[in-house]
Amino acid sequence: MSRSLNKAFYIIVVVCCLVGLSFPAMAKDYLYVPANNYLFIIDCDTDTVVKTLTFNDYIVGAIPSPDGKRYYMNSWHSIYEVDTQTDQIVDNHEFWSDLNRVTIMPGIAVSADNNFLYMSVSITKKKLNIPRLNVLPPQLVVYDVRKKQVVKNFEIPPTCTALVSPPDDPDNIVLLAQDVFKLNLKNGKLTKMLGVLNPEAGKPGLNALAIWNNWSPGKNGFVSVPAYSAEALFYMLIDKKGNLRMQKGEEVIFAYSSMVSPNSKYIYAVMDEVYKIDIETGKTLGMDPLERGTCYSVAVTSDGKKIYLGPGGPDLSVYDTATMKRLGIIPLKSDGLIASLITK
Question: Phi, psi (5° rounding) for residue 2?
């Protein structure tokens, strides 16, 4: 090879290296699965547990921050903060004390700017040496994560088990309680969005657990909640602007939780079986019984090709969304309630 060709080849190699270095590493999906005393972190390429964090608590709810850099896991009395860049527990925000007994409902939410936690709580206060308890009305608490202090609180309707913080509507938060409300975080004004226990005239009464409130992957994500009437199953869909619509299912199935696909074409729902639902018609497109029994949570990969079902017991089931057939089982050391996908 001539000297000029050698020089040209060298320049091409250098340029290719520089171009490669100028792009970030390709993002990968990881599943964060809090359970009794453990947080399991699963690589979604290999479907294996790649890291396990330990603590001494039972987690009833969890949600990533909108930027994916933090993962918040709540027990009944405190919230664990996980740095997802280092995969370490970096803080434990305590809210329970002998004189100020605060119980946190499972479905917490995070503000669009990642700075605040929203919690539905019940509070019981007492004074030293006085045998009397002061039970406050249910509260929505706004907690500044960095300052570690409550900056606002609002009285809210009872039995609010989950909150939804729409990223494109940061001044409001959706309360999933006996009915569905929108709460203005500036003035505390409540607006009823949907009757659940108290339906509007001509509408059916509904029943929904509403503690699983993870956003689906994708630019136009949704929070999806199964809601039952006496005769039908509906999917309550809340978009990133805080708008709510209901999609009636073709058949009455049993589902604890559901999640929308990244392309917003399908709903995946799970309890003792897994279902694939057309989001526009409610038609069932596929289903499969779960080999390991009841599961509580469902998570979808960012490319929409796989779903993870569970936990319920000490494992997760992995499914191909195209065929709705099981790909495998991921064993865990303990059981939990929720799984959350984070792409990083």
Answer: -70, 160
